[in-house]
Amino acid sequence: MKAAGILIPGGFGNRGISGKIEAIRYARENQIPFLGICLGMQLSIIEFTKNVLKMKNSGSSEFGKHTNNVISLMTEWSKKNQKVTRTKENDLGATMRLGSYPCYIKHKSLASKIYKRKLIHERHRHRYEVNPKYRSSIEKKGLVFSGFSKDKKLLEIIENKNHKWFLGVQFHPELKSKPFKPHPIFFSFIKNSLMNKNA
To answer: What pLDDT score does 66 carry?
Structure first.
């Protein structure tokens, strides 16, 4: 397999998940520029916990039962200063995080080099979130969380500090990208992919 860069986009359901995880592993192990969007970011965390942390039966609650759900269904949030709770049993809809949300970027990260600012606003469309209880063990092995919600409960951006260009985002940069004004993440990803191709 030869690739200048690998992008895993957003999506729903378990179709093709094992192949996507293998593509992420290939990108990580071979220093190929990688961009994961929404589900792509979530799968990059699952790949890392499986193959680097050797965490048995890690996965997402979207795809079935796992001992370690590193990605989980969003079950609680605030609406008009009221706590709203849902479970799989009483899912009445309206459980998707939609629209623009602020994201605070870690200093001296790849994301900060791309955006050149500390605070960004990006659009979301997803139900599942990174489970923060696994953050510490993941970061100890080199997968860094470099973007957060203001309260630091929602993890927005990940990057691999042992890789030349490896980025995953929970939001959808394509929703703010135009043909003649590309999103800075896409610009950086394509630039680094071309550099890798010509190396």
So the answer is: 84
pLDDT > 80? residue 92: no
From 66, 124, 174, 183, active-site residue: 174
Q: Output b/e per residue, 143-171; b: 16+ Cβ within 10 A.
A: bbbbbbeeeeebbbbbbbeebebbbbbbb
Catalytic residue among 22, 29, 38, 121: 38
Q: Which domains does the chain have, with CATH numbers?
A: 6-197 (3.40.50.880)
Measured over the CA atoms of residue 162, residue 22, residue 7 and residue 54, the dihedral's sign is negative
C-alpha dihedral (38, 131, 151, 103), degrees to nearest 10? -20
| Distance from the first to the final alpha carbon of the chain | 16
Give the pTM: 0.87
Residue 13 carries which DSSP code?
S
Distance CA 140, CA 150 (A): 23
